[in-house]
């Protein structure tokens, strides 16, 4: 019997206009600058075809080379400056909302939890990446 994965949400209010936030979120060279949960990790490669049915692959690695993995999947819905929905390679769904809030951008990212790690750890990791994005977007 298959069980439905729990959904976890992470959020941030970015002090930048939604058009800028969208560009920084979806441009591969920018993704490489912010897509890491801690300073000892990085994304040396990011590729995607940003359209429904388009594939994406973001390489995530420890800077010391001790571990790495490809984070990838398929875009299901792409609504420029508003919404992304994608399916990860393992079948989990991710939804990302971008909302204009008084000149800033509210990002709400919801993802289905995986079963390998505690949900608190997953939430902390995804929140750390989102916080990294916020810091990057606000100084870019």
Automatic annotation (TrEMBL):
Domain called Activator of Hsp90 ATPase homologue 1/2-like C-terminal: residue spans: 15-138
Source superkingdom: Bacteria
CDD domains reported for this sequence: SRPBCC_CalC_Aha1-like_4
Transmembrane segments: none
SUPFAM superfamilies the record matches: Bet v1-like
InterPro entries associated with the record: ASHA1/2-like_C, START-like_dom_sf
Family: Belongs to the AHA1 family.
Record-given protein name: SRPBCC family protein
Lineage: Bacteria, Pseudomonadati, Bacteroidota, Chitinophagia, Chitinophagales
């Amino acid at each position: 019997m298959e069980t439905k994965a729990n959904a976890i949400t992470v959020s941030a209010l970015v002090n930048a206009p939604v058009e800028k936030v969208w560009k920084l979120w979806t441009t591969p060279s920018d993704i490489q600058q912010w897509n890491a949960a801690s300073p000892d990790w990085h994304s040396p490669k990011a590729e995607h075809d940003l359209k429904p049915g388009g594939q994406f692959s973001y390489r995530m690695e420890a800077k010391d080379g001790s571990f790495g993995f490809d984070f990838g999947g398929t875009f299901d819905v792409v609504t420029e400056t508003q919404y992304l929905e994608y399916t990860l390679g393992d079948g989990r769904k991710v939804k990302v909302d971008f909302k204009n809030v008084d000149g800033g951008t509210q990002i709400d990212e919801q993802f289905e939890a995986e079963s390998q790690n505690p949900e608190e750890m997953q939430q902390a990791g995804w929140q750390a990446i989102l916080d990294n994005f916020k810091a990057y977007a606000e100084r870019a």
